[in-house]
Write a structure and sequence with these properties.
Elements: H1 4-15, H2 24-38, H3 43-51, H4 56-67, H5 78-99, E1 103-109, H6 115-126, E2 135-142, H7 145-153, E3 155-157, H8 158-161, H9 166-169, E4 172-175, E5 178-181, H10 183-186, E6 189-193, E7 209-213, H11 223-236, E8 237-244, E9 258-263, E10 266-271, H12 275-282, H13 298-301, H14 313-325, H15 329-342, H16 347-359, H17 363-376, H18 381-394, H19 397-413, H20 420-423, H21 429-441
Parallel strand pairs: 1-2, 1-7, 2-6, 7-8
Antiparallel strand pairs: 3-5, 4-5, 8-10, 9-10
Helix pairs in contact: 2-4, 14-15, 15-16, 16-17, 16-18, 17-18, 18-19, 19-21
The protein binds S-adenosylmethionine (SAM).
């Protein structure tokens, strides 16, 4: 396959899954299978389909059915479920009671065929009395729709279920050689298709979560992708919320975001408080997020900018995006400023700079850049959208609502995108409208 490198690149960008040389053959086979299903025999044609704006999102989801690894089982890494039941759950119950909040919210991110969220639901249902009336909501998501279909059906081979302790077998109806999860369990789980890598991250769905389980999902992700997802997880969790990663995932987790705690025989991560930064950000003194959460890899810090600089704003923005993609944010900012020196009234440049500032935790600068983009083009729906997201994270709900309403207004006029679609993936007008409405509803 001639184009394998191009496929590796686009697939990592869209799904986070990185195919190193040892796994390229696997990717190649998967692509060929998918091409055969579609009746396409030319890889260039398939690449065009995979990257064409109207098909891309759908095709990435289709291809993901062939390239993800859905391996899972009930109570996988048993000791983590023990830690959850014995150490974490009592703390959550105590906290929720103290806060007067009536619900426990858990997210199984990358749930595959459902065994993980069902295992959690078994524990919570078996502990109903200890919950003292607290309601339970489990969200379970995956990128792979085939896996989710199995999860939603909740039908498993009998040999898997008979391995479980009797106290959990009662949550199944035995029929022939299969077992079906009972309705009382299914009712507390919401299954949904979510690509953890796709921006904007669905923060409107997940907030104030008690626990996130995201185990054996990061194995094929590179560090920069993991960092981005962890930052979003941090936002979704409540203060002191818990994060479970697989015990085999030896990650260097940013201490500004999560601390490590031993619970029983397991290590769990807990959301560290940046309450102070939040307060100061509210007073407009400093950014909400710790500075430079995403640090450029050190070998890139000194990467020189090309000497013969391209002239057009499109070329400059493209170059800025390439630097941003490899995590070289210093260079990205430099290029954006150069661009703005020459084209100070280009709203797209302000928006792009805003995104980069936001990615690197410079919230004040990001707000100011998005505002400039809006000043230059009041119908710039994306700029209103990003500004809304920042206010939402800062807890400035009224300002966020105003921005999301402006998104709807701009979309109704036909949102301005300028040259951005040629440089980066932009969110479609329909999607922007849908998300803005979700936020307003929330
Ligand atoms: C090995 S399974 C893990 C299942 C379960 N968490 C466990 O530990 O048993 C990994 C899952 O991550 C999902 N996954 C991979 N990339 C993803 C992405 N970008 N967004 C959401 N899910 C993804 C795969 O589809 C797969 O079902």
């Amino acid at each position: 396959m001639k184009m394998i490198e191009s496929f590796v690149e686009i697939i990592e960008e869209k799904t986070g899954l990185f195919f190193d040389p040892s796994r390229k053959k696997y990717l190649q086979d998967a692509i060929e299978k998918r091409m055969a299903t579609l009746g396409i025999n030319n890889e260039e044609d398939y690449y065009t389909l995979l990257t064409s704006p109207s098909f891309e999102q759908k095709e990435i989801l289709e291809l993901s059915k062939f390239i993800t690894i859905p391996e899972t089982s009930f109570f996988r890494h048993q000791e983590q479920f023990e830690a959850f039941e014995e150490g974490v759950l009592p703390e959550i119950i105590k906290d929720r009671k103290k806060q007067g909040k009536p619900e426990i919210k858990i997210w199984s991110a990358g749930c595959s065929t459902g065994e993980e969220p069902y295992s959690l639901a078994f524990i919570l249902t078996a502990n109903k009395e200890r919950l003292q009336g607290l309601k339970v909501q489990i969200y379970a998501s995956d990128i792979n729709e085939n896996a989710l279909k199995i999860a939603r059906q909740g039908v498993y081979p009998q040999r898997e279920v008979t391995k479980l302790p009797k106290k959990y077998q009662r949550f199944f109806t035995f029929k022939d050689d299969v077992c079906i999860v009972k309705r009382e369990i299914k009712e507390i789980i919401k299954f949904m298709r979510i690509n953890l890598v796709k921006e904007p991250f669905p923060l409107y769905l997940f907030n104030d979560l008690d626990v996130i389980f995201c185990r054996n999902v990061f194995i094929y992700f590179r560090e920069r992708t993991i960092k981005r997802i962890l930052r979003n997880f941090h936002i979704c969790l409540r203060e002191n919320g818990y994060l479970f990663l697989a015990p085999t995932e030896a990650l260097t987790i940013d201490k500004q975001l999560f601390s490590t705690e031993k619970v029983g025989k397991s290590f769990v991560y807990r959301k560290t408080l940046y309450q102070q930064s939040l307060e100061t950000a509210r007073k407009k003194e400093s950014p909400i997020l710790p500075k430079a959460i995403i640090k450029p890899p050190t070998h890139l810090e000194k990467m020189p900018l090309p000497k013969s600089s391209p002239k057009s704003p499109k070329e400059l923005l493209k170059m800025a995006k390439q630097f941003a993609d490899i995590g070289a944010y210093q260079e990205t900012v430099q290029i954006c400023h150069k661009l703005l020196d020459n084209y100070p009234t280009l709203p797209e440049a302000h928006l792009f700079l805003g995104i980069v500032y936001y990615e690197t935790g410079k919230v004040e600068e990001a707000i100011s850049s998005f505002k400039k983009a809006i000043y230059l083009n009041p119908d710039f729906a994306l700029a209103h959208f990003y500004l809304g997201n920042i206010y939402w994270h800062l807890g400035e709900v009224n300002k966020a609502l105003r921005s999301y309403k402006n998104v709807l207004k701009a979309v109704s006029k036909g949102p301005h995108y300028g040259i951005l679609p040629e440089i980066m993936d932009v969110i479609s007008a329909g999607e922007l409208e849908k998300i803005a409405k979700e936020y307003i509803k929330a």
